[in-house]
Design goal:
Elements: E1 6-15, E2 21-31, E3 37-41, H1 46-55, E4 61-63, E5 68-72, E6 74-80, H2 95-108, H3 113-129, E7 132-138, H4 143-156, E8 159-163, E9 165-166, H5 182-200, E10 208-213, H6 221-234, E11 237-242, H7 246-256, H8 260-266, E12 274-278, H9 284-293, E13 296-299, H10 301-307, H11 314-319, E14 323-326, H12 338-354, H13 362-365, H14 374-388, E15 404-408, H15 425-435, E16 441-446, E17 449-453
Parallel strand pairs: 1-4, 6-7, 7-8, 8-10, 9-10, 10-11, 11-12, 12-13, 13-14
Antiparallel strand pairs: 1-2, 2-3, 5-15, 15-16, 16-17
The structure holds guanine and fe (iii) ion.
Length: 455
């Protein structure tokens, strides 16, 4: 019999397809020394009992208690780590004012490494406690503090993809918060990429550098072009904001006479490893371009409710072959939880389909075929995020990383309403998706290592 580093036994939920959730009832998950799922064994499989005979009772055998379930860890495709310090505040003003009045002054404080350490340690721990095992982070323009965020991810065991933000246009950014000039922005980005690649060698789960122009309005054309070249040279991830609000969208149209999707592509910034946040205003050609280049959309439903002045037609984009994952967009979105964002994704899609103007006749109100189910929201939060990043994460399947959250439905302070011992497991899944709170997330594992537990 093969030797495994660890074996876990219990019932798991994982996406089979965007619309279907697979229930693995009381399976064994055999994990190798690299933290990957090497074998999944069903109870009716002949080796099931053999494995139990060998491993049961050993330290590396973990059996879930009654009422506990495995979910894949969440993949948050869009988090502004420094903005955690202002989460939940200042959401009543438009994006442009919000950036200038609150966000840039806050982010400028991350030149102070002691302040950065405080916030970054807390945001990484908070995301872990909310079941997020992989996060695609915007840091700030500061190279050192951005590297500190990657180091904190490495140390806490989170799979962090981190970008030093580029804001090199002296005309568009405040003097107190921007890159010194374009050449410095590019040189800092290159040094940052090399430093994170070096750091990654000492981690099991991986940390990754991300080329990060904040959005077209903060960057010069020379800067954007240089960043595209760096992404190609080092084959890195790329992240930015695309077509987020009426304001951002029309700003790019006026400046470059094209939609920002095409502008980003012309600068070499739409690649298979690109993730663009929001994308509320993609038109049909933009969406085709995303599908062709393999660029993914980070769908940020809570944030969009505040800044977009619209609802993104996520079902339509997905049907056109665009890869989609979920993003919290802390702090444009107030919640660090992808459970909360999955719930909002479903609710927003229902509002788009069913319409929100009750003065119109029912048949004229909404956009047909817009709704998504909670199964699809779960897919976006897990497997969809993994596919967007081209990493073997987000599914409980062989050859995927053992990134899981152990959900306890019986925690006294946050008990789920399960009154029937023989409750249909699919109903349990839906209750988990709609009702779980951080208290229910008993343990979180990344790449075979326990990174969070709540006793
Ligand atoms: N566009 C440019 N910067 C930001 C940001 O920090 N948050 C959001 N939501 N949109 C942006
Ligand atoms: Fe954002």
């Amino acid at each position: 019999m093969r030797e495994y580093a660890q074996i876990f036994q219990g019932t798991a939920f994982t996406s089979k397809s965007p619309k279907e959730v697979e229930i693995l009832n009381d399976y064994l998950f055999c994990i190798n020394s690299k933290g990957m799922i090497e074998k999944i064994v069903a109870p009716e499989d002949t080796v099931f009992q053999d494995l139990l005979d060998v491993y049961q009772g050993k330290e590396n055998f973990h059996r879930l208690a009654e009422g506990q379930y495995f979910l894949p860890g969440f993949v948050d495709l869009h988090v502004h780590a420094p903005q955690w310090a202002q989460s939940g505040t200042a959401l009543d003003i438009p994006l442009y004012d919000w950036l200038n009045t609150y966000t840039f002054p806050l982010e400028s404080k991350f030149s102070d490494l002691a302040f950065a350490k405080n916030v970054y340690e807390d945001v990484v721990s908070t995301l872990l406690a909310n079941g997020t095992t992989t996060a695609l982070y915007f840091a700030t323009v500061h190279k050192e503090a951005s590297l500190l965020l990657a180091e904190i991810c490495a140390e806490k065991g989170q799979r962090g993809l981190v970008g030093k933000v580029v804001m090199d246009d002296p005309e568009q950014n405040p003097t107190f918060y921007r890159d010194a000039d374009t050449q410095t922005a590019l040189a800092d980005t290159e040094e940052f990429i090399l430093a994170v690649k070096e750091l990654a060698k000492s981690t099991k789960q991986g940390v990754y550098p991300v080329v990060t122009p904040r959005f077209i309005p903060s960057c010069t054309e020379e800067g954007l072009k240089g960043l595209g070249e760096l992404a190609a040279k080092y084959d890195t991830y790329v992240q930015s904001h695309c077509s987020e609000s009426d304001w951002a969208h029309s700003y790019v149209q006026e400046r470059l006479q094209k939609n920002d999707a095409f502008a980003l592509n012309d600068f070499g910034l739409l690649r298979d490893k690109s993730v663009m946040a929001h994308c509320n205003f993609l038109d049909e050609d933009d969406a085709d371009l995303f599908a062709e280049t393999g660029t993914a959309v980070a769908h940020c439903p809570i944030s969009n409710a505040y800044f977009a002045n619209s609802v993104i037609p996520i079902a339509h984009l997905h049907s056109k072959g665009v890869e989609i994952g979920l993003g919290s967009d802390i702090s444009g979105g107030f919640s660090p939880s992808l459970f909360d964002n999955a719930r909002q994704a479903v609710m927003s899609s229902r509002m788009l389909e069913d319409g929100v103007n009750p003065t119109l006749p029912a048949e004229e109100r909404g956009v047909p075929a817009s709704r998504i189910t909670i199964n699809e929201a779960f897919y976006f939060a897990t497997a969809g995020g993994g596919e967007s990043l081209s990493l073997p994460i987000g599914r409980l399947a062989e050859s995927y990383a053992w990134d899981v959250q152990i959900i306890d439905t019986k925690i006294v302070s946050a008990k789920l309403p399960i009154f029937n011992e023989h409750e249909d497991v699919n109903d349990v899944f839906q209750k988990i998706m709609y009702l779980v709170r951080p208290e229910n997330i008993r343990e979180v594992w990344i790449q075979g290592d326990k990174v969070h537990s709540r006793s």
